[in-house]
Amino acid sequence: MDASSLGRRLPAESIGIVGYGQSVYSKKTDRTLLSLFAEAAKGALHSAGLDKSSIDGLAVCSFDLPPDNAVTLAEQFGLSVSWAYFGTAGGAGPVASVINAIRAIEHGHASAVLCLAGDAYDIGGHYRMMDNFNRALRNYGTPNGFGGANGLFAIVQRKHMETYGTRPEELGRISVGQRASARLNDNALLRGPLTIEDYLDARVIADPIRLYDCVLPCAGAEAVLVAPLDRAEPGRGVRVLAGYEQHNHPPDEIAPLRGGWELFRDALYRDAGYGPSDIDFVQAYDDYPIMVAIQLEDLGFCAKGEVGKFLAENTFSFDGSFPLNTNGGQLSCGQAGAGGGMIGLVEAIRQLRGEAGPWQVEGARRGLVSGYGMVGYGHGLSTSSVILEGAK
Amino acid sequence: MTETIPHYPQPVTDADNRPFLDGWRRGQLYLQHCRGCGKAVFYPRSLCPHCWSTDLEWRQASGRGTVVSYSRIYRPNHPAFNDEVPIVLAEIRLAEGAALLARILRGDVESGMEVMLMASAEAAERFPLPVFQPA
């Protein structure tokens, strides 16, 4: 930003998301991570109607990026920035990066922040990453043949089933509903038809988790541009009404049936000025249906322990009774590493701008986006959520 | 008859976890106990995560615990385990109060069942971390 405007404060409500972009997703690619980021970044600028010179802040979330980081990425992209952020919260990082980018602009540390998230890996790369994900898992998980995230979330899912009576045929409605949306999305890697019978009959990966509970690790990147809303073309800005994050909660439980959303839920809806029943769609972090289910409980869409009934009574495609992960989500599009924490955010902007085309949610005005991730010794340590609204 | 031990991925020994890993090489389970708040700690730390005391004492554990939940893994993350599927990985609440993730070998498993450390020299030689069996 111009030196003269450093430190110039802006009201938080005047700042929002003015552009979004997404790379092509692929199961395996020779393209570099930087090339995927470049594609998503250029898409975000184009969709904002702004050019490169407007960017003076950079946030990035990626597992594969090291030994690079936010600052060396600025060098790669030829950006001089007054604010840089490298997310550490896995799939909760991208939503958290937007919350923090708004704070940076609010306090005059930047005026337009490009937020990127993505990874360039495949199934084999994902397994290698999980074996060395952090010290605790490397030392006390990997030597047990722990099955990666699948093995850990199977422990969570079994606990939820045995504690609350949640059934696989209920959880499967999430995968099936999202697949119905993905069938219209050319950038979803899994687009074949999926029935509840297919879900229940699929091979067991880590009992009780079956194939269609799992995401496909892939290559891809997502981007949003955070800036004052008056820089967006009329009707194309998106307000961020509320946003919170939480890490390592609860602090001493290997496989908790909660993750931290319950701590900030009331503040989130208080800041937004409305509650769960006023939300037109939800983009929940869908590494596994069981974690979507827990988010739905802890963000107040149903009572704790009653998500099974909620799932049985609703449908989850973009045109269903509860539009969820409306482009197919990670479960159908693939999980582009840390990009999995931004795919829902980008899809929410698309929906609120009325640009989702074949899978547009009718009358979408307000959406909730939720992040989750950074698997530690047993579960994802980080959560984050924002409530968004299309700007008039 | 000798069986080749698979090339399991190994934990990295450091100053914080050495008593735990050395103990298991003798077929024993060692836990840190905090002299500040009295709680047992797993995994090994350089400070008590409950009260931040650095006064942690290593004590041999009873080796007894209860299965809280578990998964039966057919696709291990590391290929060294591929011939042993399904791997039963359980969240176990130890009698001392701390919980850990560990394999359960031999017999069926269900939540709530009592388990005990497989305190044999063979198990300690083969497996990189403590393993359990039905009590």
Mean pLDDT of chain B: 95
Q: Could you say what the CATH topology of the largest domain in chain A is called?
A: Peroxisomal Thiolase, Chain A, domain 1
**Number of structurally distinct domains of chain A:** 2
The strand count of chain A comes to 11
β-sheet strand percentage of chain A:
15-25%
CATH C-level label of the largest domain in chain A: Alpha Beta
Strand content of chain B: 25-35%
- Which CATH architecture of the largest domain in chain A? 3-Layer(aba) Sandwich
**End-to-end distance of chain A, in Å?**
26 Å
Give the uncertain stretches of chain A in residue-range form.
Answer: none
- Order of SSEs of chain B, N→C? HEEEEEEEHE
Q: Report the mean per-residue pLDDT of chain A as an integer.
A: 96
How do the strands and helices of this protein lay out in sequence?
The complex is a heterodimer of chains A (392) and B (135).
Chain A: E1 15-22, H1 33-48, E2 57-61, H2 70-77, E3 83-86, H3 93-106, E4 113-120, H4 123-131, H5 135-140, H6 148-164, H7 168-182, H8 196-201, E5 204-207, E6 209-210, E7 219-228, E8 238-247, H9 261-272, E9 281-283, H10 289-298, H11 307-313, H12 329-333, H13 343-352, E10 366-375, E11 380-390
Parallel strand pairs in A: 2-3, 2-4, 9-10
Antiparallel strand pairs in A: 1-7, 1-8, 4-7, 5-6, 8-11, 10-11
Helix pairs in contact in A: 7-10, 7-11
Chain B: H1 18-25, E1 30-34, E2 40-41, E3 56-60, E4 64-73, E5 87-94, E6 99-103, E7 114-117, H2 121-126, E8 132-134
Antiparallel strand pairs in B: 1-2, 1-3, 4-5, 4-7, 5-6, 7-8
Outline the structure in words.
The complex is a heterodimer of chains A (392) and B (135). With 392 residues, chain A is an alpha/beta fold. Chain A has two domains: 3-122 and 219-237, 3-Layer(aba) Sandwich (Peroxisomal Thiolase, Chain A, domain 1), CATH 3.40.47.10; 146-217 and 239-390, Peroxisomal Thiolase, Chain A, domain 1. Chain A has 13 helices and eleven strands. In chain A, the strands form two sheets. Chain A has a nine-stranded mixed beta sheet with strand order 3-2-4-7-1-8-11-10-9, sandwiched between helices. In chain A, strands 5-6 form a two-stranded antiparallel sheet. In chain A, helix 7 (168-182) crosses helix 10 (289-298) and helix 7 packs across helix 11 (307-313). The longest helix of chain A has 17 residues, at 148-164. The model of chain A has no long low-confidence stretch (mean pLDDT 96). With 135 residues, chain B is mostly beta strands. Chain B has one domain. In chain B, 10% of the residues lie in helices and 31% in strands. Chain B is built from two helices and eight strands. The two termini of chain B are 28 Å apart. The model of chain B has no long low-confidence stretch (mean pLDDT 95). The chains are: A alpha/beta (392), B mainly beta (135).
